[in-house]
Write a structure and sequence with these properties.
Helix content is 46%, strand content 12%. It folds into two domains: 99 residues, Heat Shock Protein 90 (2-Layer Sandwich), CATH 3.30.565.60; 112 residues, Winged helix-like DNA-binding domain superfamily/Winged helix DNA-binding domain (Arc Repressor Mutant, subunit A). The strands form two sheets. It has a three-stranded antiparallel beta sheet with strand order 1-2-3. A three-stranded antiparallel beta sheet has the order 4-6-5. β1 and β2 form a beta hairpin. By secondary structure, the chain is an alpha+beta fold.
Length: 226
């Protein structure tokens, strides 16, 4: 629907859908709309090349008024635990979307559905992408998350804090080196307690032992500065 609505009708060619062993590729004549780049696909203000066509599609119920087409493509991939949509082969004359063939992650799908039911609302695209990254990468800093999502640091920080309040993410460390991982609750619900301990056990166990060891070398006395 995005390809049909936003293709460049001044160019010859057709929208092409290819399904093969690798996945699905959709290519559409014309490059990205002015102002849209690979880095701001999910954050740029929605607008289209063919506003009359877009309005018609909205009126007959084939598209949303909010212009969230690309958001929906990402959400669909993430909710089922699959790789993110790939627009990297897009050029100035052709938008190309590749969706990799991959088996759904049933545990992650159930986890997302259960959490949205518990919270009584849908998780934002920011939250979904952060959870997806932490599922795959295990542990990331704010800078690393920003680099992978291309989201503004301020919005990411707010989304992460919301996920911490919801009990889905934990933070380890302080300052710029502070890193984030899925919470103990998430690992436990997915029967992955061992993986959680691997990510957090060293810090949680070693730091108190190091503090006690230092105190013992100083006749049992230790300060915050120490």
């Amino acid at each position: 629907m995005n390809a049909f609505c936003h293709r460049d009708y001044t160019m010859l060619g057709t929208v092409r859908v290819l399904i093969d062993d690798e996945g699905m590729t959709i290519s559409s004549p014309g490059g990205f709309i002015d102002g849209v780049t690979l880095d701001n696909l999910l954050t740029v203000e929605p607008h289209g090349k063919n506003p009359a066509l877009a309005d018609a599609l909205k009126r007959i119920g084939l598209a949303e008024k909010t212009g969230r087409g690309i958001d929906r493509i990402y959400e669909g991939s993430i909710i089922y635990g699959r790789p993110w949509p790939d627009y990297s082969e897009t050029t100035s004359t052709n938008v190309k979307l590749f969706i990799q063939r991959a088996k759904a992650d049933d545990r992650f799908t159930r986890f997302i559905a259960d959490e949205q039911n518990r919270l009584g609302r849908s998780l934002s695209i920011y939250a979904l992408m952060i959870l997806s990254l932490l599922k795959n990468e295990k542990r990331l800093t704010l800078d690393q998350i920003a680099e992978k999502t291309h989201f503004a640091e301020g919005k990411l920080r707010g989304a992460i804090e919301n996920l911490i309040e919801d009990g889905l993410v934990e933070g380890v460390g302080n300052g710029r080196s502070r890193s984030y991982l899925l919470s103990q609750k998430v690992y436990k619900e997915n029967n992955q307690s061992i993986q959680y301990v691997r990510q957090t056990g060293i810090d949680r166990i070693a730091f108190p032992e190091m503090i006690l060891k230092l105190a013992k070398t100083q006749d049992g006395i230790i300060t915050k500065r120490d």
